[in-house]
């Protein structure tokens, strides 16, 4: 098993090991088992976090990005990115 290295905005490495993953079909009603996202084809990603029902749109995510955040939904309204995978 390989440890994937990503960095936060200050350049500090963030360690993350995924044990499973699932292709995400954005939906305004479906909820996901909590995990972190990989975005294959960039764009905007509208998400809901575990502790709130507030929608947050993450804009201009580049191709091939790991998002070191935990989410429970990827919404179809506001999401333009494609090839999204939730990692657990």
Can you give a write-up of this model?
0% of the residues lie in helices and 53% in strands. The mean pLDDT is 89. A hairpin with a 5-residue loop joins strand 1 and strand 2. The chain has one domain (4-9, 20-87). The protein is mainly β and 88 residues long. The two termini are 14 Å apart. The strands form 3 sheets. A 4-stranded antiparallel beta sheet has the order 3-9-4-7, with no helix packed on it. It has a 3-stranded antiparallel beta sheet with strand order 6-5-8, with no helix packed on it. Strands 1-2 form a two-stranded antiparallel ribbon. It has no helices and 9 strands.
Secondary structure elements and pairings:
Elements (H helix, E strand, L loop, with lengths): L3 E4 L5 E4 L4 E3 L11 E7 L1 E6 L6 E7 L3 E7 L1 E3 L6 E6 L1
Antiparallel strand pairs: 1-2, 3-9, 4-7, 4-9, 5-6, 5-8
Task: Tell me roughly what share of residues is in helical segments.
Answer: under 10%
Strands of the largest sheet, in order across it? 3-9-4-7
Mean pLDDT: 89
Tally of strands = 9
Secondary-structure element series:
EEEEEEEEE
Cα-atom radius of gyration: 12 Å
Shape: globular
Strand content: over 45%
Concise overview:
This protein has no helices and nine strands. It has 88 residues and is an all-beta fold.
Question: Could you list some keywords that capture this structure?
Answer:
88 residues; mainly beta; 4-stranded antiparallel sheet; 3-stranded antiparallel sheet; 0% helix
């Amino acid at each position: 098993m390989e440890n994937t290295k990503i960095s936060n905005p200050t350049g500090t490495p963030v360690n993350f090991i995924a044990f499973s993953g699932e292709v995400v079909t954005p939906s305004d009603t479906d909820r996901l088992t909590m995990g972190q996202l990989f975005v294959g084809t960039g764009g905007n990603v509208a998400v809901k976090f575990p502790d709130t029902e507030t929608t947050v749109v993450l804009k201009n995510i580049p191709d091939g990005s790991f998002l070191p955040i935990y989410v429970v939904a990827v919404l179809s309204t506001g999401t333009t990115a494609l090839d999204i995978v939730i990692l657990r």
